Every structure is written in C-alpha cells, then in structure tokens.
Amino acid sequence: MLRRSGIYALKALLELALDPPRWQSVNALAQAQDLPAPMLEQLMLKLRRAALVESRRGRQGGYRLRRLPADLPLATILAAVDAPAASLMAATEPEEDPQPSDRVTRVLNRRLLQALERELDRLTLEDLLFDLRSARAAFSETGGLLLG
C-alpha cells in the first residue's frame, strides 16, 4: 500500500529515533534496516530539505532527527519523500460523466482518502517507535520490557 520511498523513509527515521543524539551514516542506516544505500541517500537528502533531519559531514557525521519523534506526523514524512496519502489510493476518477455507481465509488474513495489523510496527520513517528519497541519486547528472548 505504501510506496517504497515512504517505507524506506519511515524505516530510516525509526532507526534514527532509536538513538536521537547519535549521528548515523547512510550506510549504517541502510545496513540496520536492510535498505539499498543509494536510494536511501536520495531519500535522506529529501528529508533534509524538508527540515526533518539534519546532516553533518565528516568521519563522525551522518544524519540525525531535527525534531522530536512526537513532532513528526507520518503525513509530513511521506510528503517529504513524494509518497502522499493520495498515492495510497487507486486512481478511480473517471474522465467522462460517471454512471451512478461510479459516482458512489468516487465519493467513497474520496471519503476514504480523507480518513487516511486525517490518520496520517494524527499518527507520529513516536507512535511507530512505541509500536516497534513493543514488538521487540514481545519477541525478545527474555520476554521483558526494553527500556530506552
């Protein structure tokens, strides 16, 4: 359902959110999330232009979040890498005067898109981070909570 660019951007930002103050290289992010480094580099540049991450050159450089995960709506992240909510829905807009059944489909699709956009505006990177930590805790060998 999500475009590859959106999935990769979310995975990279989740990796950065796990250790916010640490600068991480594209190669480290790509390796940690099993992503292609060349495509990730292009996405990180888009995220930097959108002021979602900051970058630093040099041996100790890389990328880190510019904002707190709670201040990063998923809609903002997806829009930064050209994967807006509208791309998640199949194109069903007829070019000619629609039949009554086509009108119903178009209205339903519009309402579903609006609901999806509201949810993507509401959900933040912090929400995904919580889900990720919960999943890791559930599947850890100790079965305990992972803190930090």
TrEMBL record:
Q: Which domain of life is it from?
A: Bacteria
Query: Which InterPro entries does this UniProt record tie to the protein?
Result: Tscrpt_reg_Rrf2, WH-like_DNA-bd_sf, WH_DNA-bd_sf
* Annotated PROSITE patterns: HTH_RRF2_2
Task: Name the Pfam families for this protein.
Answer: Rrf2 (PF02082)
NCBIfam families of this UniProt entry? rrf2_super (TIGR00738)
This chain's protein is named Rrf2 family transcriptional regulator
Give the originating organism: Cyanobium gracile UHCC 0281
